[in-house]
Design a protein that fits this description.
Shape: elongated
CATH superfamily of the largest domain: Hypothetical protein af1432
Number of strands: 6
Largest sheet: 6 strands, parallel
Helix content: 55-70%
CATH class of the largest domain: Mainly Alpha
Strand order of the largest sheet: 3-2-1-4-5-6
Strand content: 5-15%
CATH topology of the largest domain: Hypothetical protein af1432
Radius of gyration: 26 Å
Order of helices and strands: EHEHEHHEHHEHEHHHHHHHHHHHHH
CATH architecture of the largest domain: Orthogonal Bundle
Length: about 375
């Protein structure tokens, strides 16, 4: 008979404490597999700050990558509505006819188990496994188990050291951009959160603004550039938060009418005859002014990254180079040499800039478009000789 662990929860986000609990349960009960099941709508608590089911499924999949016994199930996300454990076990019984289920839950949820929908039927279909947050709580769990009467035979209390982590506290740190300590999240999950800006209130506000100002296509591109910028920033040990914001905002004025872009440039004093003759540059310049004067971002590195993401310039900062390259090799790009360009960008920032400028200047020449002075100076720096 197959022994299957069933570990459900909001997983908002899944953290190292969840992984540790699942690992110990698999070890103690000799489980053949552990199903990680993100809830669609948790029935036992308010879903405060709940990110999409797709995001939580993906984070669970990332967390499970290094654990051969872990599998991720979308059974509750697909079912919609409130995610009652009874319904999930009933469905799993049909899928795994010859299996014994071990329901893994946290200690706080265990102490409210008698309030669960059809909790007695849940115990008929599975064993219940939990572990205390502290030695002191073990006495509380034992008393609760004892009060279940004959049903207590289906309840196991694991004697283990629980990792004291809280998804709520993790989200609170992420909302305001506070760094997390090492080992709080599985590494791949932390990278995904950084790339997408999940839980960050400032990033959420930027995304909401971008959805209003940009077409769906341009918004999608901006998110992809932000993701690539974060990957490059992490690779080159640059500030990931800056890369995320600059990547998101680099095209903020792209879909704004040209006359409005010109008005912004005139208002804040960036206007030359050369600029007026090259409309392709307007959104970069107007965007940097919008970022500085409307969004009130004072970080010059982010402002310059937005301003020069199209033209480049000589002596760019690392962040400017990262945004310039991220825009060229983001995952939504599909031109002929993009795969090679992407590989070069991760091999060397300097070589990436050289190849990018060779490509860009060649393209401008083919289209017989004017080349602005900043681009010429950058080309001279990286490509001359």
């Amino acid at each position: 008979m197959q022994k299957i662990g069933v570990f459900g929860g909001s997983f908002n986000p899944i953290h190292s404490g969840h992984i540790h609990l699942a690992e110990k349960a698999a070890e103690q009960f000799g489980l053949d597999k552990v199903l990680l099941i993100p809830a669609n709508i948790p029935p036992h608590k308010k879903a405060v700050g709940l990110v999409s089911g797709e995001d939580r499924l993906h984070m669970c999949s990332l967390a499970a990558e290094d654990h051969p016994l872990f599998e991720v199930s979308d059974i509750e996300i697909k079912r919609k509505g409130k995610s009652y454990t009874y319904d999930t076990l009933k469905a799993l019984k049909k899928e795994y006819e010859d299996a014994q289920f071990y329901l893994i839950i946290g200690s706080d949820m265990f102490l409210t188990f008698h309030t669960w929908h059809r909790f007695e039927d849940i115990l008929k279909m599975s064993f219940l496994c939990t572990a205390p947050r502290s030695r002191e709580q073990m006495f509380q769990l034992r008393n609760y188990r004892q009060n279940l009467g004959a049903k207590r035979e289906k309840v196991y209390l694991m004697d283990m050291q629980v990792v004291p982590l809280s998804s709520t506290h993790i989200r609170e740190h992420l909302k305001v951009g506070m760094p997390l300590g090492g080992g709080v999240l599985p590494e791949a999950v932390q990278h995904y959160i950084e790339e997408t800006g999940l839980y960050n209130l400032t990033v959420d506000a930027y995304k909401e603004l971008l959805q209003k100002k940009l077409t769906p296509y341009r918004y999608y591109h901006s998110c992809k550039v932000a993701g690539m910028a974060v990957r490059l920033a992490r690779h080159y040990r640059e500030d990931v938060g800056k890369a995320l914001r600059a990547g998101l905002l680099h095209d903020i004025m792209k879909d704004t009418k040209g006359d409005v872009q010109l008005q912004i440039m005139k208002k804040f004093g960036i206007m030359t005859d050369m600029v007026s003759e090259i409309p392709q540059l307007w959104h970069s310049l107007a965007g940097s002014l919008y970022v500085k004067h409307v969004l009130e971002i004072s970080d010059e590195d982010i402002i310059h990254a937005v301003r020069y993401h199209t033209s480049a310039r000589a002596n760019m900062s690392r962040l400017e180079k990262i945004i310039y390259l991220a825009d060229l090799v983001s995952e939504d790009r599909d031109y002929k040499d993009v795969k090679r360009m992407r590989e070069i960008a991760f091999a060397s920032l300097e070589e990436g800039m050289r190849e990018a400028l060779l490509y860009s200047v060649s393209d401008l020449n083919k289209k017989q478009r004017a080349i602005v002075g900043d681009t010429r100076e950058a080309y001279q720096q990286y490509c001359a000789g």
